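Q: Could you predict the 3D structure of Helix-turn-helix transcriptional regulator?
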Amino acid sequence: MPIPSDPADIDPDAPIFPIAAAAELAAMHPQTLRQYDRTGLVVPGRTRGGSRRYSLRDIEQLREVARLSAEGVRLAVIERILRMEDEVQQLRGRVRELEGELRAERDQRPGARVFATSATGAVITLRAGTRVRRQTDVVLWRPAD
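A: Sure. Here are the predicted structure tokens for Helix-turn-helix transcriptional regulator:
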């Protein structure tokens, strides 16, 4: 695998830094990193031989742990904060994925601008300019342009 020439091209989740480098980048002692790994606070990747390898995201988390700890936040609370931040990242990724699916669906259905439901509950896609039969169909959603 070629080495990226631009640091922005590095995968933030790629486990690349050995513990000594990660400790230096996070301004922590390596033993602190080992303790955080044992407690599950910041868990790095592992090589086949079992050596710890930290990613850029791990180092960001370590710096966040240090900042919050310096402000007096307990480690148990920091752990909850990190878990919630991870969940938010996952949810943002899912939202981006769903937005992409929605765009693809819209692109596959040019002219489909209004959705309605029939009296039986079936969802109907209406073309622009199509009138809804008021007695049996109800308009559910009209996307913004």
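Q: Anything worth pointing out?
A: DSSP finds four helices and six strands in the chain.
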